[in-house]
């Protein structure tokens, strides 16, 4: 995909890690606290990449600006922080991919809108923090994706140029940020794609239908 590939950067939720089971768990715990029945996982999963705001929209019909939004958001994040790595794991094939990148002396990193207080404990719980050469969270730099600044910063941390890098993500803002940064981009179609998403309109350089497709797309393996 890129002959002089020096780094691969990933979005976190729905791209590198399958965090949906724990984010859905937290939402259903919160619903139980408020006397509501749990929602089916299939209803929650497509919206996980859009964070707490999307979870509250799905779980309680709350939008930003509602008088209860901030209180519910704080409660949700606290519940999620307490259940950060119960079921979360790397998507299939991603452990092998990270090992292959290391063997090829290609850096890998993360650019996510997830805040540091959730991202870092999660990576540490899964023993991924040390090998991650660039880590940019939603409160590391501003503005966040779809602005390219987080990807510029991630590349700087990893000691590579954006044009030597690929960014993989499962949301339009990921692909927009990657394109604006001058990186090659890959849509993680296996991730948390919403029913209304039209991924071909995002104009990524490639689409990974399954997580196991990334090895071939990135390293021609």
From TrEMBL:
GN (gene name):
gph
In Swiss-Prot or TrEMBL terms, this protein is called Phosphoglycolate phosphatase
Per the record, the GO terms for biological process are: DNA repair
Keyword Metal-binding in annotation: yes
Q: Name one GO cellular component term.
A: cytosol
InterPro entries, alphabetically? Answer: HAD-like_hydrolase_sf, HAD-like_sf, HAD-SF_hydro_IA, HAD_2, HAD_sf, PGP-like_dom2
Could you list the residue ranges forming a coiled coil in this record? none
Question: Keywords, A to Z?
Answer: Carbohydrate metabolism, Hydrolase, Magnesium, Metal-binding
Q: This protein's superkingdom?
A: Bacteria
Q: Name one GO molecular function term.
A: phosphoglycolate phosphatase activity
Organism, by scientific name, is Kangiella profundi
Q: Which SUPFAM superfamilies match?
A: HAD-like (SSF56784)
A Pfam family cross-referenced in the UniProt record is HAD_2
């Amino acid at each position: 995909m890129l002959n002089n590939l020096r780094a691969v950067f990933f979005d976190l939720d729905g791209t590198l890690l399958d965090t949906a089971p724990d984010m859905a768990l937290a939402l259903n715990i919160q619903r139980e606290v408020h006397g509501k029945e749990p929602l089916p996982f299939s209803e929650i999963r497509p919206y996980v990449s859009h964070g707490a705001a999307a979870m509250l929209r799905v779980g309680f019909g709350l939008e930003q600006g509602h008088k209860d939004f901030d209180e519910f958001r704080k409660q949700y994040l606290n519940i999620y922080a307490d259940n950060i790595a119960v079921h979360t794991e790397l998507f299939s094939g991603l452990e092998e991919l990270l090992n292959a990148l290391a063997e090829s002396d290609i850096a890998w990193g993360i650019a996510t809108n997830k805040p540091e207080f959730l991202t870092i404990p999660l990576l540490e719980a899964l023993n991924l923090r040390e090998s991650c050469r660039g880590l940019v969270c939603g409160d590391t730099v501003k503005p966040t994706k779809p602005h390219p600044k987080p990807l510029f910063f991630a590349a700087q941390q990893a000691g590579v140029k954006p044009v030597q890098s690929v960014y993989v993500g499962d949301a339009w803002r990921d692909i927009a940020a990657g394109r604006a940064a001058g990186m090659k981009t890959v849509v993680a179609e296996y991730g948390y794609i919403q029913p209304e998403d039209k991924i071909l309109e995002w104009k990524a350089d490639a689409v990974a239908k399954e997580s196991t497709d990334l090895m071939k797309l990135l390293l021609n393996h």
